[in-house]
Write a structure and sequence with these properties.
389 residues, homotetramer, Gfo/Idh/MocA-like_OxRdtase_N (chains A, B, C, D), Gfo/Idh/MocA family oxidoreductase (chains A, B, C, D), 17 strands, Rossmann fold, Gfo/Idh/MocA_oxidrdct_glycsds (chains A, B, C, D), 28% strand, alpha/beta
Chain lengths: 389, 389, 389, 389
Amino acid sequence: MADEIGVGLVGYAFMGAAHSQAWRTVHHAFDVPLTPRRVVLCGRDAAAAEAAAAKLGWAAFETDWRRVVDDDEVGLVDICTPGDTHAEIALAALDAGKHVLCEKPLANTVAEAEAMADAAAAAAERGVRSMVAFNYRRVPALAFARSLVAQGRLGVIRHVRAQYLQDWIVDPAFPLVWRLQKDKAGSGALGDLGAHLVDLAQFLTGSRISGVSAVTETFVRERPLVTSSSGLAASAGASLGEVTVDDAALFTARFASGALGSFEATRFAAGRKNSMRIEVNGSAGSLAFDFEAMNELHFHDHTLDPADAGFRRILVTEPAHPYVGAWWPPGHGLGYEHTFTHEVRDFLVALGEGSDPAPSFADGLRVQRVLDAVERSAAADSAWTVVPN
Amino acid sequence: MADEIGVGLVGYAFMGAAHSQAWRTVHHAFDVPLTPRRVVLCGRDAAAAEAAAAKLGWAAFETDWRRVVDDDEVGLVDICTPGDTHAEIALAALDAGKHVLCEKPLANTVAEAEAMADAAAAAAERGVRSMVAFNYRRVPALAFARSLVAQGRLGVIRHVRAQYLQDWIVDPAFPLVWRLQKDKAGSGALGDLGAHLVDLAQFLTGSRISGVSAVTETFVRERPLVTSSSGLAASAGASLGEVTVDDAALFTARFASGALGSFEATRFAAGRKNSMRIEVNGSAGSLAFDFEAMNELHFHDHTLDPADAGFRRILVTEPAHPYVGAWWPPGHGLGYEHTFTHEVRDFLVALGEGSDPAPSFADGLRVQRVLDAVERSAAADSAWTVVPN
Amino acid sequence: MADEIGVGLVGYAFMGAAHSQAWRTVHHAFDVPLTPRRVVLCGRDAAAAEAAAAKLGWAAFETDWRRVVDDDEVGLVDICTPGDTHAEIALAALDAGKHVLCEKPLANTVAEAEAMADAAAAAAERGVRSMVAFNYRRVPALAFARSLVAQGRLGVIRHVRAQYLQDWIVDPAFPLVWRLQKDKAGSGALGDLGAHLVDLAQFLTGSRISGVSAVTETFVRERPLVTSSSGLAASAGASLGEVTVDDAALFTARFASGALGSFEATRFAAGRKNSMRIEVNGSAGSLAFDFEAMNELHFHDHTLDPADAGFRRILVTEPAHPYVGAWWPPGHGLGYEHTFTHEVRDFLVALGEGSDPAPSFADGLRVQRVLDAVERSAAADSAWTVVPN
Amino acid sequence: MADEIGVGLVGYAFMGAAHSQAWRTVHHAFDVPLTPRRVVLCGRDAAAAEAAAAKLGWAAFETDWRRVVDDDEVGLVDICTPGDTHAEIALAALDAGKHVLCEKPLANTVAEAEAMADAAAAAAERGVRSMVAFNYRRVPALAFARSLVAQGRLGVIRHVRAQYLQDWIVDPAFPLVWRLQKDKAGSGALGDLGAHLVDLAQFLTGSRISGVSAVTETFVRERPLVTSSSGLAASAGASLGEVTVDDAALFTARFASGALGSFEATRFAAGRKNSMRIEVNGSAGSLAFDFEAMNELHFHDHTLDPADAGFRRILVTEPAHPYVGAWWPPGHGLGYEHTFTHEVRDFLVALGEGSDPAPSFADGLRVQRVLDAVERSAAADSAWTVVPN
C-alpha cells in the first residue's frame, strides 16, 4: 500500500482544473510510490474557492495561500496562479519544506526566476523537490520524440521550427483579460505560448538556445475592460483599456549545438486553435508534431533508401511508448489532460526515488532567460542578443 | 448537493477500467443530478478482483455478480463482462430494480437480445432504466456529426462507408484469447467492431439497415492456447486451438431510407490500430471521420460555390460542440476514455430526468439483428438477407 | 535517330485530348525506340474533328474511322470512343495489321471482349500488338506499389479496399450525357470507375478476383435530355429521359489468393472529385493511395518495431521511382496526364522490343468478366457469383 | 489562325527542359493569340546543345547567346541560365527589341536587377515586354489564393509564414555544383528558394516587405569538386572546394501593411523534397499551401460559426479555378510543369493584348532588394534592415 502525500492547490481556473484531474487520476492509472491526497484548494474568493473545491474534489478550501503553505497536512504545493505570484508562493513553500510544482512560465522576470532556481537548488539539498509544469514534455509523442533524438536517430540537428498558433483574440471585441496585462502575465503570446516552444526545443534537442533575434507586435492595442469573469469566460463592458503584452512574438535562434531555430507564438492565427507545431531536421532524420493531432508523431528516417522513405505517421499509442502502457490499447488516443497526469506521475516517482524531477526550476530559468533575450532583442531593433548561460 | 447513486461494476478488464475512469470523473467534469458512488467491483478471481477494486477505486469487491445485483447499496449495475453473460446478469439486475448499463454487443444472440429488450421495456414502465454502451456515439465529433445530419446539412443520404480496422492478431502466433472464441464472444471482428459500425451508421443517418449481403473469413484458423492472462496481455503455450470466430466481416447494405452502405470490420489491417472510419455522402454534403484522429470531423458543404468547397477539418473542440464545454479550451483534444465519461453523464442525466437514455436495449437489439443477418447471409453464399424490423 | 510510327486517333473528347498530350510529349521526355507521328484524328462531325485536329496537334482529320484503319501512314490506332464502338474498330484495325491502343473498359460486353482478346492473341502471333488503356497502372505511385507487393514487402495479402468516388452527377439537373446511357457506355459508375478498380486490384495483388457479391443503384432515374454538347460540357433541355446505367456499384469479392476485397464505385460521393482510393493490407505491410494526392503512396512496414512503425507518406517523385527519372527533381509532382504519357511510352518500348505490352486485351477481358459477374450478382439479389477464369 | 512568335531558349538544363515543355504545350491547351515556334536552343557545349535541341524539340541550336538575340526569327528570348548571366543577356535582348522571359532570381545583385528593371521599363515604352519567371504564381492553388485575398476573404492580414524546405544537399558528400557557388548563383537557398517565398508573399498579400532581420548559415563548408555533370546529375572527385553560399536562410519581416512575416529557406530539411509552404492568417480567414500537395489549398473562413469552421481542403481542380478549365475534369490534378505552361500562356496573352505581363522586372527587383536586405542583416548581427522601396 502506497504512502500518501497531501497536496495543496493554489489557483483553480483552467490550470487548477487540469491539475485536479491529474491528482484525482494518477494513482488509478499508474503505480506510484505515493498516493496523492487532495487536502486543500486555495483561491482569493471564498465562495468561488469553496465551489471549486467541491467540484474539483478537494477536501477543504482556503483563501490565503500562506495557510496552505503552513498546513501540516500539505506536503506538496501546486501553484496554478498567474505568473506574478509564482515566486512569492514558491519561495515560501520551499522554505517551509514543501515540494513545489509550479506552472509555467516559472516567473515573470529573470530575477524572480533566478531566486526560485536558487531556492530550489538549496531545497534539493534538504530533499525538498521542485518542478516546473511544462506539461507538453509529457505528451507521449514528444517524450518519444526526445528518445529518438537521444538515440541519435536524427543525427546532427540542423533546424528547429517551432510555432504555437492560437486564435482566441482575433476579434478586437474580445475583452482585456489578465493574460493581456503585463503586470499579471509578464508577457503575452511570448510567455504563454512561446515558453512552451522554448522549453520543448531545448528538451528535444538536448541543446540550449544561445542567441536570438526577435520581433513582437500588438495588433489590437485597446480592448474592452472585463466586467465579470468565470472560469475561462469573461464579460466585457464598453470602456477600453490598453493591451500591455505582445499579441505575437517571432524570433530566429541559434542553439549551442550549431542548429538554427525559427520560433513563432501568436494568438492571431485564425483557424489554429492550439496548434503547437514543432519540426526538427537532422542529418539522419526529421520529426514533425502538431498538438492538434497530439497522438501522432511524424518521423522521417533519412538513412533509408530514398525510394522507400517518407514521413511516417506513428500513432504514439503503443504499450512501448512513454506513459501509454498505463492506458488503453493501440489506437485509442489520449487527450490534453493526460499530460498533467503524466507530469504528476513523474513528480511522485521522483519523490519516491529521492531524485530531482525534470524540468527543474533551473530549466524554467533557462527558458526565462530566452524569453528575456527575445524581449530585449525586439526592443533593440532585432539586434542579435546572446542568452546568458 | 447532488444525491448519490451506488454503482456495482461487473468485470474489470479493459472495459471495466474504462468505465471506472468514467465513474470516478463524471461529476468532476459535468453537473450531474446524481453523484456516482463506486460501491463494488465484481470478478470471479478473488485476488484479482480485490486488486482491481483497489486500483480502480471501488470500495469493495465481490466474486459473484448475484451479490452485486442483490446489494442494497447498488442502484445501478454496469456490465463489462464478455457477451455470453450479458443477458443473465442484465435480466437479473432489471428484475431486482437496478438500472443497467451493458457493454456492447448487447448479447451473443438475437434471442438473448430480444429477452433483454423486452425486460428493459418492462423495467422502464417501473422507472428502471437501461442503456447499451455504444460509447462511440459520445465522441464529440460523432455526436456533432449526428446533429449536422439531423439539421439536414447533408440532404438526402446516398452512401454510408464504414470500416473498423485493427491489426492486433495479424501475427499467427497471437494466442487464442476469449475474443477469438465463439462461445464467449459470440462472433469476432463482426460483433466486436462491426457492432459499433452498425450502431453508428443507424445513429448518424437516423435510418435502419434493412438488408445485407455479407462475406466473412477466418484467415488464421488455429492459434496457440492461452496459458495465462493479465489485463490485455496473454501468454501462449505450444498447443493450438481452433479459432471459432471471424477475423474479418464485410457486407453491403441498404438502409430503409434508400441509402447504400458498405461495411467492413477486420483485425487484419496491418498498421491500422483503431481506425473506425465512417463516411457519409448526401445530396447536400458529406462527412468523414476516423477514430485515430478522434477530435476531427471532416465536413463538405455541397451547397457552396464549387470553387470554394472542400472537406473542412473541424476540430471538434469548441465549447458549442457536444460535451466539450465541460473540458478544455479549443484545440485541447479529448481522448478515448472521455467517451465513457460522456456515456455515464448522459445516463445520469436521464436518471435525473426520469427519461430513457439512448442507445436503448431496443437499439442494441436492432444492431444484433443486423449482425445476425450478416452471419446468415455469409452462410448462404452472400444471399441478400432482409433484417427484421 | 528513332524511327517513326504513324498514329491515328479515333475520338477527340476527354480521352482524345489526354492521349494527344501523351503522343505530343512522350519522345521529349523519354528515350523511345519509335517517335510517334500524329497522322490523323477521326471524329464523326467534320467541323469539330477539323478543329480538334488543329488544336490537339494532328496533321489531318477524318470522319470515318475505317479510313484511319486503312491509312498506310498509320501504324497504330488509338481508340478513344465510347465503349459500344471499341470492338468493331479494334477488330478491323488488328485485322489490318495495325497496333491498337484501346480505351477502357475494353468493351461493353464479355462477348465483345472475348472476340477482342482472341483477335489480339492472333495478331500478336503476327507481331501486331495491343494494349488496353488502364492508365492508372502508370501512376508512378501505383507502379511503385506493385513493385513493393511483388518484392513481398506486404507478405500475404489479406484485404483490398478499393473505392472510386466522384460527385459530378449529384445534382438531379445534370443532363443525360452518353455516359448515363447503357447502349453507349455499357454501364455507369461500374464500367467507368469500377473497371479501373478491378484492373488495379488484380494488377497490384497479382491475383485475380474469383467471385463477387454486388448491389447497384440508380439514385436519379430520370434526367434532362442533352440539347448540345461540347467537350466535357453539355446543355440540357426541359424534357427528361431515363438513366439506364448504375449511379453506384458496390461489391465484396474474393481473390484466388484468398484475400478479401471491398469495392465501391459511385458518382454520388459529394465532395470527392476523383478519389480513386485503394488500400491493401498484408501480413507484412500495408499500402494506401488516393488519386486526389497522386504523388503520394502511404506504406506501412509491419516488420518494424511497433513503436517505430506507421504509414509513411512516400513522395513518389524520386529518380528511382517508376517513370519519374524522365521528369523533374524530387518533390516536383506529376499530374493526371502523365499517366497517358507513361502508357504510350510503355507501348512504344514494347513495340521496339517486339514484346506484348500490358495490360493486354486478355487483361481487359478479365476485368470485363468481373464487371459482368457484378451485374449478374446485383440482378440476383447479391448471390455469390463466380468469375470465370 | 494564330500568328506565330519565334522563341529562342538560352540554357537547357532543368529550367530549359521545363520551359521547353511549356512552349511545346501551351497552344494545345490554351487559346493563345500567338503560337510559339521553337526556333533555337542555345548552350555553350555544341554537342550537348545539339542533343538538347533534338530532345526538347527545338529547330536549331547555337552556342553563342548573342546569335540568338540577333536572330530575326526570334521574337522572344527565354533566359534559363544561372543568375550571373541574366543581366547581360536580358539587356542585349531588350535592346534588340526582343521580348524577354527571364528565370528567377532576376539577377545576382541589386545593381544588375536595377539595370534590368530600367531597361524593361524603357523597352515597354517601345512595346517590348518582359517577365520574370516566378512560376509558382501560376500554381492554380496560389493564383486562387491570391484571388481570395484580393476579394477580402482573409480580412486584414496579420501573419505570413513561408518556408521552402528541400534536402538534396544533406549529405556532405554531395558535390560542389554551380548552385553552391556564389559567383554563379549569387546566393544559396536564399536566392534559389527564398526568392520564390518573397515573391509569393508579396504577390499573395499585395503588400511589400518593408524590413527584415536575418540569419544565414552554411552547415557544410567544403564539398567535393565536380568532375563531370549531366543534367541534374553530377559526379564528384576527391578534392574539396569551398561552399560560398548559404545552406539556409531565416528571416523575420514586416510588411508595409503591418503584417508580420516569418521566412525560412533551406536545403537541409531531411525528408522535405520540395516543400514550399506558405500560410497566411488574416482577421477574416486563413490560407495554407504546400507545394508537395500542389493541387490543394487549405482555407479557413473565420466568419463562419466556430462550431462549423475549419480549414477546408479545396481541390483546386475546378473549371472555375485559374488555368484549370483548359485541362482535365475536377480531381484530375496538374503537376509541376503546368506552372510553366501557365506562365508562357500569360506572357503570350499579354503580348496579344499589348500589355505588360506580371511579374515584371520591377517585381523581380523588389524581390532582389529583399534578398539583399536579408544578406545585409545577416552580416550585421541580424540588425533590422529596411528594404528600400
